[in-house]
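Morning run. Coffee first, then this:
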Amino acid sequence: MKLVTAQEMKEIDKLAIEKYGVPGIVLMDAAAKQVADVVTKQLANKSPLGKVVVLCGGGNNGGDGFGAARWLHGYGIQVKVFLLGTVVAKLSGEAAAEAAMLKAAGVAVTEVVMEEDWFAVELALERAAVVVDAILGTGFSGELRPAAKRACQLINQLAQHVVAVDVPTGVNADDGSAAAEAVQANITVTMALPKTGLLLYPGKRLCGSIVVANIGMPSQLVNDFPSHKYRITADMVRRLLPLRAEDAHKGDAGRVVICAGSPGFTGAAALCSHAAVKAGAGLVSLLTPLASREVLAVKLTEVMVHGLLERMPGVLGSAAASDVLTRANKADVLAIGPGLGLSDSTQQAVRDILAKAEVPVVIDADALTALKDDTELLAKMAAPKVLTPHAGEMSRLTGLAVEEINKNRIDIAQKYAQAWQAVLVLKGAPTVVACPDGTVYVNSTGTKALATGGSGDVLTGIIAGLAAQGVSLAEAAVCGVYLHGLAGSLACDDVGLAAGEIASQLSAAKRIIAKDDANVCNSSIKMLK
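And here it is:
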């Protein structure tokens, strides 16, 4: 599913009107009907139906609100409409046309411009079964003006159930940032395509369930529009997941070599290795410092564990780097980093391995730290690579503050994937997968329970296990983050998840994707036809 910014959505609207001949009022009224239909479904669960209050601003978002009110009135639902901070006479364009049609249908618009007008708003909100937020749409950024701010505060204090039009008032449609008083919606009906800010925090938290409304936008226009941002869906993953022939043997299912685990950090290596097995890799070999070999050999029944020569216990050198390269270059994919160690010697060994690797490499954890002062190595690598940093590791690699990275997850991931010519998996809420060609995928699965030690090690193993089975690194990353999030949700939907439980649910996650069970796939976005 494509994602768009506010500006890209404006361009699509303009093309629909100018190139495809779809009048703006037709698009707006289709949007209005979809909002009204969602509100009607919410009212169906209430007895008696109750009243609907629509709060409108003076722009196109308000126009959608006027239209929704007219449709609701036509359905026989009691509706009260308020126009905030301006008067009907000052409306223009499609918003003015919708207001005129609403008046012709016999529904009055109460203008809220004086202090005494707000009492009626408060009273209506207290009595409403559903409130429609049509105050500000995708054009918002920065801080709310007084009238909008006051309306948002009242909605959050008094409304029982809120349906937001396109985006909750006070949420930035591009980056998900939000004003302190932004509306907390139960449902957001967004038009034609999801906006990027609806998938990014804190905006995602304020949207509630998201409904993508079909407003009659020409399908060819949507399909051809050059957006490079996508939301990962079950359908996408189902099409990308590697398939195994009925007569396949373990050699056909791919060979993974993992270099991980120093003394005291063997759990990271074990989690990563086990996840690669559960992701479907036919053969998994773990290369670990000799001091860790016995512990890991006991932990891992299905993994071949090999001890690497050490300079001192747990510390690798050039001999270990040579051994890793010899073994890895005979495999299908190398994963390196989880719990490997931060000594200068080990870090240099990592750089030596990356410089000479010939097979695709998944770079995580301590291997990322080895690159913090040498990211130029990434551009020099002959092997394709996936980097899997969380925001802290990304900060060390780029010098950017963690706060800046989290506020601009999509743009930063896209920028550095291109600069480093790597698939970049920026872990977090949500995880973003960016590709060297500028394409970005935003994950849609996951749970707060995944905020637990070892979760990232499992993800590295999943991606490596998938990549070994013949899909590209980008495809392995897209499928891996989706499966990881879904498996985490299946294992634990609140808190208290042990990272090892994620891998145990991978098979169940794959079965759900195969059945296209959107409800279990933790999909908070639904398509409204």
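The domain at 234-240+253-528 is CATH 3.40.1190.20 (UDP-N-acetylmuramoyl-L-alanine:D-glutamate ligase). Good start to the day.
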